Amino acid sequence: MTGWITKHTVLPFWIALTTFLATTTGCSASSVNVRVNQFGYHPSDSKVGVVWSAEPFTASRFAVVNSNGKTVYEGLLTLPADSINSSDYFKHADFSMLTAPGSYRLNVYTFPKKQSELFRIGDGLYHPLLDSVVRFYRYQRCGYTYPVGHSPCHLHDATKIIGGHSASRSIDVGGGWHDAGDYTKYLLTTSHTVYMMLLAYELFPSQFPDRDQNGTADILDEAKVGLDWMMKMHYQPNGLLIQVQDLKDQTVGWRLPELDPLEKDRPAYDLPSRAHCGSFTATMALAFSRFKPVDPLYAERCLTHAQQVYALSKGGIPATSSGPDSMYYDKSDGDNMALGAIELYRAVGTEQYLKDAVYLLERIAPVYWVSWGDVGGFASARALQYHPPAQEWLEKVLDEFELNSRQMPFGYALRSYPWGSASIQTGISALAILHYKSTNSPKYLAIADRQRDMILGANRHNVSFVSGFGSDFPKHLHHQVAHINRIQLPGALAGGFVSGKAHKSANLKLETSDRFAAYQTTEMVYYDDRHDYLSNEPTIANNAQLLFISAFYSKGR
Question: Is 11-121's fold the same as 127-463+537-555's?
């Protein structure tokens, strides 16, 4: 039986029977774990809890109880598709039909004392998360941009230019955001960050109400911090800087940014690639469209930069460039250039831009990955209304992620746990949401839901990777300002699970006791330690994808 419970007299019999069955098979109640999205669900969301154990278990029924302990929903546990890459045992508890607002826990009848963390269902539930994710960027601000949590910093950026046409001279590239827990600034990740902000504003404008006197929404104000800096980085029509500072940043120890001993030794690098040009162009073209109604002069500046850098990409610069270090090395450029071309077409309607986008997509799509450097899925999503085959390319990618999500534990949409797995999950969610917004088909929304749920606590370790949200979340992020000034960063997304082998090979020297020791495996580990940059560092680009999906869930489908 599934549905609302109207009679409770049968429950003691079910509890007694299933407890007997469990004890006769030797399954220990202590090995059974119940996991949910600890933050909660919009009433219209699909809602699937996960019951897992290191041993086979016989539990077949679940119940959802309210804050008073009253059962409001019950159902049958179901077996997921055969899980791969795991020695554990899993069952799903689907309570999507429960839509009444409230606070709840998920129980397993066989083990009545085993229950999930508290979670909520309600309209507007994701507004606080969205607000916090936006506020995270104020802590990342650099220069005279009214940062929060620290003083204005790096006021001499940049002390010299390396490469390009104006080597050795200083240049004003102050502002922007620090990329992560360190103090470097990158064009690729800043471009992706602003792009996701503006895309969220385009698709979900009601989630970003006007809050200041000139009628510009907060999200546009924050996006301007990145856009203003990007304009400075395009310091001349044929010159594009790709980053400020290099690996020296990580050689002088932990410090506040305003006390950086490298204040007057922060070079900028003029070593652009077509990948840089494509992402820059896409962001500036989208900025033109979004700012045109509220600030036409600013919008025209964005368009000028977009068109000049797009033209620069045709001038013989290399497809890829590693720059002065390998932290953000983009190995391909067709996806970035396709996104730049399609956004220019959407902005001004010039047919050549559409032809360029289609030409590139036909050679690279589908792109079975998503990140700040792998934007082929975004390009396909933005092109599909003008070029129908782009829908097929996007759906091939999402079909692959959907297959993974059916087979991997907790609905995870990848086959392994690379560095930055949580950011790839938010990227996959964003692609599924873009498909929905472009086609009005909810076919892939369950993938988005499962990635979100896993990030917010429905995972092996029972931890939410978003600071301040859920029953348990990171307390020791790899972030210098947060650690030194004892700040709990709002809405900061940690890196997420990483393979045990990769983590071990990094040879990190951790300082906190491992509160997740019982859950670590060779396939996936997470450490809440300030020295763990692999699994516990927030970044601007990763948070931007979280911002996008938070805007969607704030609105509800």
Answer: no
Longest dimension (CA), the chain: 82
What's the average model confidence in pLDDT over 247-273?
94
Stretch among 14-18, 231-235, 416-420, 449-453 having the lowest mean pLDDT: 14-18
Among 106, 130, 299, CA closest to 218: 130
- pTM of the predicted protein model: 0.92
Q: Does residue 215 surpass a pLDDT of 80? A: no
The Cα 332–Cα 53 span in angstroms is: 41
Within the chain, how many helices (H) and strands (E) appear? Answer: 15, 13
CA 206 vs CA 5, 209, 222, 547, 555: distances in Å: 37, 6, 17, 14, 8
Sign of CA dihedral 384, 390, 391, 397: negative
Sign of CA pseudo-dihedral 148, 547, 244, 252: positive
Tens digits of per-residue pLDDT, 519-538? 999 999 999 999 999 999 99
- 3-state DSSP assignment of residue 464: strand
How many of the other CB atoms lie within 10 Å of CB of 403? 13
Q: Is the pLDDT of residue 517 over 90?
A: yes
Q: Where are the domains of the chain?
A: 11-121, 127-463+537-555
- Candidates 3.30.2350.10, 3.30.450.40, 1.50.10.10, 3.40.50.150; CATH matching 127-463+537-555: 1.50.10.10
Of 136-150, 223-237, 238-252, 319-333, which gets the smallest average pLDDT? 319-333
Residue type, 131: D
Higher pLDDT, 277 or 24: 277
CB atoms within 10 A of CB 372: 26
List the strands of the sheet with 32-35, edge to edge: 32-35, 48-53, 89-94
State how far the Cα of 113 lies from the Cα of 124, in Å rounded to an integer: 31
Token pair in block for residue 74: 């019950």
Q: Does domain 11-121 have CATH number 1.10.357.10?
A: no
- Residue 512 near residue 452, CB atoms below 8 Å: no
User: pLDDT (tens digit, 9 = 90+) per residue, 440-455?
Assistant: 999 999 999 999 999 9
Cα 294 to the center of its chain, rounded Å:
28
**What is the rounded CA–CA span in Å between residue 191 and residue 172?**
19
d(CA 258, CA 142): 9
Residue 535, judged by CB atoms within 10 A of its CB (0-12, 13-18, 19+), counts as: buried
What is the b/e burial string over 77-92, where b = at least 16 CB atoms within 10 angstroms of the residue's CB? beebeebebbeebbbb
pLDDT in the model for residue 330:
78
CA–CA distance, 334 with 450 (Å, rounded to integer): 30
CB-facing half-sphere around the CA of 392: CA atoms within 13 A:
5
CB count in 10 Å sphere of residue 55:
12
